[in-house]
Every structure is written in C-alpha cells, then in structure tokens.
Amino acid sequence: MTTVTSPVAGRAVGLAAVPDPVFSGAMVGPGTAVDPVREATAAVSPFDGVIVSLHPHAFVVVDDKGRGVLTHLGIDTVQLNGQGFELLVCKGDTVRRGQPIVRWDPAAVEAAGKSPICPVVALEATTEALGGLVEDGDVEAGAQLFLWK
C-alpha cells in the first residue's frame, strides 16, 4: 500500500469540486483535490519516486512499483506559460515525500483569472484501488490524502 500525501496546504475538496470536466469526471484517474492557501509556497512531492513529467503547472512522480501520481497546480494554468512558477527539481530526479518540487503563488494564479485548485490524481488506477480518500477538511502539506492499495 502506498500513502499519497498532500502537495500543498489548504482545504480538501474532492475531484467533483474541480472546475474542469476532465478532472471532476475522473477521466485522468481517481484522486482528490486541494484548494490551496493563498500564499506563495512550494508544492511538494506526494510520495517517494522519480519525476517522470515536469511542467511549471504540473508534475508526475512515479514510485518503485510503477504507480504515478499527477499533481496539477491550478486549472488552465498551462495558459500562464510558466509565469509565476519556479521549477525546483529536474525531470528524472529522484525525490522524497515532502520535497519541494515547484514554487508558486496560488493568489497570483487566482489574480490571473485561473482556479488555484490542485487535483492530485492516481494515474491508471481504479476508484476501488484507493482507500481513505480525503475529500473535505483542512489539510497540511504532507498530510495523507489517500492510500493506493
């Protein structure tokens, strides 16, 4: 079983609350989402693994079992062309849970007209494979969001 933790501090809201049908419909995969606190911070790795995809607005970490977790920093933030995001690691880097990956400012994302909500998705997983899904309440960065059985 793999524990997946929150990449940001904020309020867990669940994927259904994400203002994007691809995420809210769990088309990318099951998981949850966090509405982040509105302060400049670093999004951290949700578990130990290797960075296999890295963009200013999103990253994927894959663990030693081949399980990949997508962290998406806001909705439609790809349209910001990296402005307001700072990469702190490189694609191919091995990272540890809680290690800073991308520095960003959710308040600036919101000021730019985008939602700062952060989907955290288990790629190529089934809903049944996840347990202990946190879909409401305050969470700190590093707090458990779900278990991947």
UniProtKB/TrEMBL annotation:
Organism superkingdom: Bacteria
Keywords: Kinase, Phosphotransferase system, Sugar transport, Transferase, Transport
Domain PTS EIIA type-1 residues, every copy: 20-124
Any one GO CC term of the record: cytoplasm
GO BP annotation list: phosphoenolpyruvate-dependent sugar phosphotransferase system
UniProt cross-references to SUPFAM superfamilies, sorted A to Z: Duplicated hybrid motif (SSF51261)
Stated name of the protein: PTS glucose transporter subunit IIA
Organism: Actinacidiphila oryziradicis
Compartments it resides in: Cytoplasm
GO molecular function terms noted in the UniProt entry: kinase activity
